[in-house]
Amino acid sequence: MDNVLIVPSENIGKNFIPAEYLPKGKDEYYQRNKQSIPPKSGWRNLRSDEVERLVKNVNTADNWDDILVTDQFDTNQIKNTRFFGLVRIGCIRNVILQHHDLRVPSGITNSLIISSDIGDDVAIHNVHYLAHYIIGDRCILFNIQEMHTTDHAKFGNGIIKEGEQENVRTWLDLMNETGCRRVLPYDGMITADAYLWAKYIDDAALQMNLKMITQKSFDNRRGFYGTTGDHCVIKNSLILKDVKISSHCYIKGANKLKNLTINSSEEEPTQIGEGVELVNGIIGYGCHIFYGCKAVKFILGNNSNLKYGARLINSFLGDNSTISCCEVLNNLIFPAHEQHHNNSFLIATVVMGQSNMAAGATIGSNHNSRANDNEIQAGRGFWPGLCTSVKHSCRFASFILLSKADYPAELDIPLPFSLLNNNVSKDQLEIMPAFWWLYNMYALARNSWKFQNRDKRVHKDQNIEFEPFAPDTIEEIFAARTLLEIWTAKASLRKKGKSLKGKHEDDLAALGRDLLAGKEEDINSLEVLGENMENTRRKSLILKPFKAYHAYGDMLQYYAMKNLLEYMKSNPKATFPMMCKDLKCKRQKEWINLGGQMMQKDDLDKLRSDIGSARLKTWKDIHKRYDDLWVKYKVDKQKHSFATLCELYGTENLTKADWKSALNKTVIIQKFVCDQVYASRKKDFDNPFRQTTFRNKAEMKAAFGTIEENSFIVQVRQETEDFELQVEEIKKRSGF
């Protein structure tokens, strides 16, 4: 409706809730009264002398009896303001409020206030339209065009109010632009919730109950007011409509904020800056959104950022993430994602965390049919290089690094920690498994420390596994080793001119294991080809399969022993037999990364079943289950580590000799890690081209320091020394 209507004068400040939605015996303020905390001394009406002074100060009211104040009320602080409806004003004193360099007097000037509650020592100046809001104590509202709430406000939650049709409900179209994986946003939603909902769309009972749980999580009655918590500052902004704002939030120069919940606290203040336009969203604690960003139908996790014109649409950005300058559509992004470049593009993707998008990366939306874009699924540590172009549909294992290229077809890369290269000159896809371990150890070892160090959340609602070696990646490594065995066996048989017809995969795997246990030069003479990795007929060449296979083995050993040593450390009286008794189990092969939290597939299936059968009736119940599984995960991971070590040693029952061998080998691996961290970083210092921009070595040292001073290298060396001491202590405890 674009017409301007003439309506009765009582429609301003009165009849906020339509009569048909008012419960019997309630007035239009019943919801407001539940939201607002009255002053200890209570409200009172204005005295006649106060009304006289207010009128002299060019203030007006449709009914002065509807203006309620407290005993501390300085009429001189209110000037040139119009009041409509019931307005309740807290303590007003002749004091100055300061926020950064802004100093403004307490009071209300040059404003229009409609049916609102105003806290103690609040400054409201040049607010041209403030309606149906509850303003907390010591807030500053300065130069605002429009700030109001409708009777059917949902504050970004995917619910419908009384009398509303289903088609007004706000959904997030995650992971797929067609909306087939849509979820309902709600205040408190974490990436685990979104993935559970969006991924398991075939579970009808789960889908039905998640929708019902979300709707029931909020009061669907009309008449809730917008709120600002205490110590909020909102200045030089245009439109705020149906926005719920928590305490200590700072909003400056925003263009449009509509249908939002903005979480903020003294410990984790949220800030929203110049030129920002946000519609239909939930914003987590400690977020920063600045410089012309646009977000529509979105959720921003705790301690996350949008900067420099980023566009986030129909997407969920997980905790501890930053997106700058780029376009992100229809995505579910797990925690610890970084994307900083104006010409990068991400669409219809689930990215499972600890990821980094380089400049020029175009992930998705490269149409290879006349149908809608499909989906991309990228495991943890996904890192497409500069100017990388990837088409739908693709699936990537964890910690895949894509070299700069235009990848021509769909990809399915099951080999974790790999480097991909599109070799145009040879027209082949090249994959180097275990690249991170072999050639980029500095980045790999720094991974866990980096993300934990950046985790500034106070509200740690989403449980996150930061370690690169965890059950999800370990199971990918097991599967990758089997593929390398099979592909190596096939390469050997092809070289010998023998037929592959009728060869069983188990037999091929056994042959491959024997070959890979031999000499490296024998394997290097083979052309080992990957299978079903690219939707083309060209070769998928496996680079350095011998080194990769044995690197994978070392990674399994390293993971297993680090967790088993943690068990021994946590249980000072534990012996080797006790460890075997406590941790012996069958290896669980299926693990789910649920929004950053790892859990066994059986546990997830039980969770889904309990939601579908209504055993878990609220999001609080579901989150409690997440937390219980997170506590359980520590032991689950140790058991998985024990089973991994047994698998490596080809036994169901480790002997003391196996344990001693494993301890000794792990010390060697830890020293290798330490040496490779140093070597992979040293290349940057030794590269002569990196020295060309400096007049001399002194200038370079002043700029970058020396490698020996590198804090992370110093840290890894200390950790290696501590590791060796710990192993020696365990050896003594084990009687070695």
How would you briefly describe this protein structure?
The protein is α/β, with parallel strands linked by helices and 736 residues long. Helices cover 32% and strands 22% of the residues. It has a 33-stranded mixed beta sheet that branches.
Q: Can you lay out the helices and strands and say which pair or pack?
A:
Layout: H1 30-35, E1 44-45, H2 48-56, E2 60-61, E3 67-69, E4 78-79, E5 82-84, E6 87-89, E7 96-99, E8 102-105, E9 107-109, E10 112-114, E11 117-118, E12 123-127, E13 130-131, E14 133-135, E15 140-148, H3 191-199, H4 204-216, E16 226-228, E17 233-245, E18 250-252, E19 256-262, E20 271-272, E21 277-283, E22 288-289, E23 294-300, E24 305-307, E25 311-317, E26 322-324, E27 327-333, E28 337-339, E29 345-351, E30 355-357, E31 362-363, E32 376-378, E33 383-384, E34 389-390, E35 394-396, E36 401-402, E37 412-413, E38 419-423, E39 428-432, H5 435-439, H6 441-453, H7 471-495, H8 505-516, H9 520-524, E40 540-542, H10 545-570, H11 576-583, E41 591-594, E42 597-600, H12 601-612, H13 619-648, H14 656-686, H15 697-704, H16 711-733
Parallel strand pairs: 2-5, 3-6, 4-9, 5-10, 6-11, 9-12, 10-13, 11-14, 12-15, 13-15, 14-16, 15-17, 16-17, 17-18, 17-19, 18-20, 19-21, 20-22, 21-23, 22-24, 23-25, 24-26, 25-27, 26-28, 27-29, 28-30, 29-31, 29-32, 31-34, 32-35, 33-36, 35-37, 36-38, 39-40
Antiparallel strand pairs: 1-3, 7-8, 38-39, 41-42
Helix pairs in contact: 4-12, 6-14, 7-8, 7-10, 10-13, 10-14, 14-16
Q: Report the sheet-strand fraction.
A: 15-25%
Structural class by secondary-structure content: alpha/beta
Helix content: 25-40%
Q: How many DSSP-defined strands? A: 42
Rg, alpha carbons: 31 Å
Assign an overall shape: elongated
Uncertain runs: none
Largest sheet: 33 strands, mixed
Q: What is the mean predicted local confidence, pLDDT? A: 95
The rounded distance between the terminal residues' Cα atoms is 84 Å
Quickly count the helices: 16
